Task: structure prediction
Amino acid sequence: MKKIEIIIERTKTGYSAYALRYPVFTTGKNSEELKRNIAEALNLYFHKSGKTIMVSDLKIVLDIPQFFSFYKIINAKALAEKIGMNQSLLSQYISGNKKPSSVQTKRILNGIQQVGKELASIRFL
Result:
């Protein structure tokens, strides 16, 4: 099954999400609740067709400000250093004051994905 693209946005009370190609939307207080809620809403939408949607069937789509709002644990200063980007410039992208080019967006995403790979490979004694 092709993944279902889900757009996530920050709200005053948490997060909202909607399916890009289906008339399905929901809200949640945090990322885990939001993912469960959108999967449940999609299951209600697809109920008659017999499809079952799991959280793993979702493709989460965020812009840079939404990403840093959603994943507050990511340290923007450390990421800027890691990818060789001026911290002030990254901060402007995060705040939405500037919109990154597609090259800069890819650079940031590659850096985030590299951190994810490094974290996934860590083992504790």
Observations:
- The mean pLDDT is 92.
- The longest helix spans residues 102-121.
- The CA atoms of residues 10 and 16 lie 6 Å apart.
- The beta strands are 4-10, 15-19, 25-28, 58-61.
